[in-house]
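Input.
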Amino acid sequence: MEETFDSFEALLNQQEEKKIKKLIPGQRIKADVVGISGESVFLDVGAKSEGVLNSSEVTDQEGNLSVKIGDKIEVYYIRSHGTELMFTTRVGSGSAPDHLEEAYRSQIPVEGVVKEEIKGGFEITVGGKTRAFCPYSQMGLKRYDNPAEQYLGRTLTFLITKFEENGRNLVVSARAILEIERERFREELKNSLHEGQTVEGEITSIQPFGAFIDIGGIEGLIPVSEIGWSRVEKIEEYLSVGQKVSAVIKSLDWNKDRFSFSLKETLENPWEKAEQNLPPGTTVSGKVVRLAPFGAFINLAEGVDGLVHISKLGNGRRIHHPREVLEVGQDYEVKIESIDRENQKISLSPADYVAQQDEETIEKDEYQNYKKQQKKEKQATSMGSLGELLQAKLAEKKR
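Output.
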């Protein structure tokens, strides 16, 4: 009896799910493809009647259907026609002005052909014969130096942003469509992306502090420190706008729209082999890559630099800056003193360096010895004075 009740409850739930939905023109829904016949694709939209979509909307240039029975697709409700519910993926060629007005009011995408470049933008033909205008800024998410070369002759999808004079004054936007798709994809990315993940993207801009990468849905920064294991002086020597690269996600801040990536983490870490190839005591030849007040940085291998402290550079004499004895680009032979793989630090000394006290150390030691001697003399003097005082007291008592 309980099993019969459960079956009846499940049947009621199924019927509840199949209740007629009240559809509003322009409403976007997900529908199941349940049949394909001639020029019609039949859809299950959760209503009593089936939805109908013209098969030309899901047919490629070779005449092949891009959907099959069982697929889920996104469609826009247009109107009812008898017992049929008419849907579209966008308003295409041959659309009448009233259809275009409905597309405007319901924000249904329309197809248009970029016909001609005019002042401020492009002339677009929508509905097969209706002229519309699209400003340069609304053609896409990116700006191009030669937009005509990029867009002329192409068929794109637009939203109608202005419909006046019974369709004789139309303004459209392709950017609006792309922004909607981008936002939708962004929501999907929130659930699929995580820090440490490797993603594919395209370099969109290069700045002195790093390069921006678009991974589709979000754009973030590859800081200059994350471009390579070696010190990067000119980013343009490593990357170019439009280049496709792999990058590792470093951080995701959806609230502030701040995303950072690393290019170098997709490359082999040269420090993994540094300990093996550069053991302490080894003498190697490197190149001076940077001079700082405290020492000279020597490149030993791709992405691996070591430091010679300034105190070891004077060959026995005191210097105030490494530039007094070295210059950037110079080949220099050094000895590995110690290596800290975890902190990526290598301590170096000149190959012919002999440890010795510098003048400052000698002066310091001499001063310390002087102070010690003074202290001893003072103590001796104090003891002498005290002895004389005690003798005088004893002599006084004897009297």
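Confidence is low (pLDDT under 50) at residues 1-6, 8-20.
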